[in-house]
């Protein structure tokens, strides 16, 4: 018989979760200047701008990219963001990172979120080696930490597998090589909140496997990971939770497999995907 005076040991499942990101009724709008607001193509619009030099430029097109989105993310979660092109996924990540002003609502974060490819902004005229050092410093690592992790970063990126690319200027890299190096730099440091936009879509299957393993490690280190990807299999393999944005609104929030299945059914009916800014 159990001792009624003995305090039962709480189950792990009952332990309180720690919020890392709170998005409360967020609206994000911005203006697209020079866009084909009147239905003309981009080339025609550019020619019109050249002919209008010296005149007052017309007002740009206002885009309401995120519309009243609310959710709470917790420590240890990996959350995928899915939705049609122009649904507001990338814009929402920028708002969480503090890089995109919020018109209404609030974003609360624990620590400074790191948006992959922005925090580790690389310089095209510098070598990959110099960019690893500067990128590591930009991510908040000390010079000693950068030196200690340098070989690990380069090996993880895989850009030296065929030739000594790390000693070449970044402008000689393919877009995939640059994206892999950015990911390697960002993943070398633990983050309270790491935001990844399409990083895993770049590179071969071996690099994607390495990336997924590193995301699992970041989660084990008590961080929170957000991942935007057009690959539904990447979302279900990497994340246990998913947010589905459509036309700027949060359509569904739940287990990744269930949300992806609902989204795939939606796109199969011909209702999506769409196009436009605010992806």
TrEMBL record:
Entry's Gene Ontology molecular function annotations: ABC-type transporter activity; ATP binding; ATP hydrolysis activity
Top-rank EC class of the record's enzyme: hydrolase
Q: What is its EC number?
A: 3.6.3.40
Concerning Pfam families, the annotation shows: ABC_tran
Q: Identify the domain of life.
A: Bacteria
Which is a Gene Ontology cellular component entry for this protein? membrane
InterPro entries from the UniProt entry: AAA+_ATPase (IPR003593), ABC_transporter-like_ATP-bd (IPR003439), ABC_transpr_TagH-like (IPR015860), Bact_Polysacc_Export_ATP-bd (IPR050683), P-loop_NTPase (IPR027417)
Q: Which UniProt keywords apply?
A: ATP-binding, Hydrolase, Nucleotide-binding, Transport
Question: Ranges for the ABC transporter domain?
Answer: 51-272
Matching entries from CDD domains are given as: ABC_KpsT_Wzt
Note the PANTHER family from the entry. TEICHOIC ACIDS EXPORT ATP-BINDING PROTEIN TAGH
Q: What's the family?
A: Belongs to the ABC transporter superfamily.
- The name this protein carries in UniProt is Teichoic acid export ATP-binding protein TagH
Q: Tell me what organism the protein belongs to.
A: Streptomyces venezuelae (strain ATCC 10712 / CBS 650.69 / DSM 40230 / JCM 4526 / NBRC 13096 / PD 04745)
The organism's taxonomy opens as:
Bacteria, Bacillati, Actinomycetota, Actinomycetes, Kitasatosporales
